[in-house]
Amino acid sequence: MLQNFKLYSQYYDLLYQDKDYALETDYIDQLIKQYKPQSKNVIELGSGTGKHANLFSQKGYHIYGIERSAEMVNIANQNKRENIEFQVADISTFEVDKQFDIALSLFHVISYLNRNQDLIHTFQNVHRHLKQGGLFIFDVWHSAAVHALVPEKRTKQLSNEKISVIRNAKPIIYPEQNVVEVNYDIEVTDIESGTRTVFSEKHPMRHFSKPEIELLAFATQFEILHSEEFLTQAAPSVDTWGVCYIFKKI
Ligand SMILES: C[S@@+](CC[C@H](N)C(=O)[O-])C[C@H]1O[C@@H](n2cnc3c(N)ncnc32)[C@H](O)[C@@H]1O
């Protein structure tokens, strides 16, 4: 099994410190209020280090997070607010003895499901864990933009008072599989001692066209209520990297 988010988890919050989790949580909260007001119980797939969960808890939601990486859950548990629980499990096979108003999966978690089998099982599993009329809100890489913009090599450098992290991302495109394998080479330097740690991780990301998502919805008994660019709410286009879909259980 792919061991990503193991060492990466230790630097995850630093690498994404510029990501506006509060704005994203407000955005999703607005969607929930628009499409299923009075929702309270949320299952979050790929809950990571629990940043969204904490912000949703502050808004009065109860969050049950499912996350495959025990290291990410460990970090999430250290900062956990009230009405939040995390389970280390795979989103395609988890079981919780409860049904929820809302399922969320944020920051391209669904794009980590490269195989049709895992996708179908995940969407069926979400369906089972939602109440009738419950929503599944998720964002994925958008094929039209991947073809038009073409992923390139990128470098990101961040530091705090203790460490400095350089992350080189090298994408390998698999056009026949709708997958871009993002290869991260990460170098961490301890600022005080100067000690360097180097490691690599592969993050194979699948991208989706709207017709593929429509087929997935049909096959797993969801209705698509809406799709739009994540956060900006623009209509998806060749410039839209992340599309947010709102599914309703039928
Ligand atoms: C890019 S991170 C997003 C984390 C979090 N949602 C956020 O916004 O910061 C993707 C997360 O999905 C998790 N993940 C990927 N595939 C998974 C699977 N099949 N089951 C459970 N978690 C998964 C990874 O371990 C990782 O924590």
From TrEMBL:
GO BP of this protein: methylation
CDD domains reported for this sequence: AdoMet_MTases (cd02440)
InterPro entries in UniProt: Methyltransf_25, SAM-dependent_MTases_sf
Domain of life, source organism: Bacteria
Pfam families: Methyltransf_25
rRNA-binding recorded as keyword: no
Record-annotated Methyltransferase domain positions: 42-134
Record Gene3D superfamilies: CAC2371-like domains (2.20.130.10), Vaccinia Virus protein VP39 (3.40.50.150)
Keywords: Methyltransferase, Transferase
Gene Ontology MF terms in the entry: methyltransferase activity
Protein name (record): Class I SAM-dependent methyltransferase
Higher taxonomy: Bacteria, Pseudomonadati, Bacteroidota, Sphingobacteriia, Sphingobacteriales
